[in-house]
Structure of MFS transporter:
Amino acid sequence: MSSIASPTVRSAAVPLIVVIVAGCIVAAIGNGVRTSFGLFTLPMTADLGMSREAYGMAMAIQNLAWGITQPFAGAFADRYGTARTVAAGAVIYALGVVLMAYSQSSMMLNLTAGIITGVGIAICSFSVVMQAFGRSVPPEKRSFIFGIATAASSFGQFIFAPIGQGFINAFGWQTALVYLGMILLLVVPLSAALRGRTEAAPGQADLPFFTALQKAWTFKSYRLLVIGFFVCGFHLAFINVHMPAFLVQCGLTPEVGSWSIAVIGLFNIAGSLLSGYLGGRMPKQILLASIYLARAVAIALFMLFPVTEVTAYMFAGAMGLLWLSTVPPTAGLVTVFFGARYMGMLYGIAFLSHQIGSFVGVWLGGYVFDVTGSYNLVWYLGVLLGLASAAVHLPIREMAAPLFRGPAPQPAE
């Protein structure tokens, strides 16, 4: 196994522990607010007279806007620094969430909750935070550090699910969204600790955006990784947005839905840390195939048994262990393939595939429910896609892409 080291440009005045702590808080806030949007499905559609498909479409556009923006946000942070990227993203994200509270039509919701919020999420996402982590630690520790960042984002999901539901119960969904937007502005001062950018390593090519992308796409293992990541997005977005409503349809309370999302976040802390640990000690592609296979089994078992409060929490716990556990080995493989210099941009391309899957999962969930009155078809599709993704990851080889080698550094005279 080989990887490409990359020197960094990072302020010596910012200790590594400060970078990690600040980055983890940023990841927790950003992901926590985003994962609370499923709690707004029922109150918003009821008050605004929208269909589930209309709300699902706004969330689907959000995921697609996030995915399209992510490679450019990563490339910008690679070139010009993480701090200014994250701060700008937080302002855009907060603006989108606040404007979402005043969106009275599906068209406005597509703009505010969809495009503006999606772009903001991309620019201050934990993917950008992981760039700061990736350039600051040695290659052999990156997988574990990526696991820490992912676990932090999951902790945000755990704490913001009950916070979001509490805001809705106490103040109504509109005020709840305004409060969540205000919380997002805390990211702006925290971003200062992430300042710095990544330089190309000696012996590594320094390529323009589209040249790097073209060369990367010729590498078979990268193509397979990108294709498989589609399924992760499909699973996460469908469950996050539609599971609370699905549980209400099964006769459970909205609080069970919110706590199920929280349980996913709680268990994913352990799952992400374990994935980051294992990613440094076993082939990452085998780890990813195992995760997708386990997801397929968990969803199949959930559909086989009656849905009760107990089975809902059991499924949430199982999915939580597998939730974002794909991220550390996926990001780790990108750095193995191409080095830390291109992580932001090329992981962003993989993440675009993830977000296309998210778009399909969110939209299809709403469409199938409106047509059939049930989410069952999408659950079954999730099983099949999990099996397919497990198969796609098996041929991946954990090795550096030769096309990203530059001229060998010349010895000093």
